[in-house]
Here is the input.
Amino acid sequence: MVKTDQMALDTNIVIDVLNNKTEVIELLKNYRDIYLPVTVCGELLFGAKNSAKRQDNELRFREFFRRCIVLKVNELVAETYSEIRKQLKDKGRPLPENDIWIAATCLVNDLPLATHDKHFEEIEKLTLVKW
Here is the structure.
């Protein structure tokens, strides 16, 4: 059963938070625990390393990570990833691989995912919260 007082964040939602988007910040106040799939952390750090303000952005991201619960990849997440990827391949609906990892992490941990990306709708049983 998906937890209703906990939320996992996609990369685009974290960026909204760090850019002080008031409506997103207000919505997050409704959740007791905020989770980040480790893949989201990797995407953010990659973006920081490619930015003009590398050190500033890395510091901002790492500070945000410390305020969240970071979810790691394990064998069950890997198995779920492989199942999702196969289902999407069979449907002819490929998704970015990182997003499949994010979805698998959320499914294994019974967490809804806050995102702006519509393509997550292709993943069966994934609970989405669109902001």
About this structure: The chain has six helices and five strands.
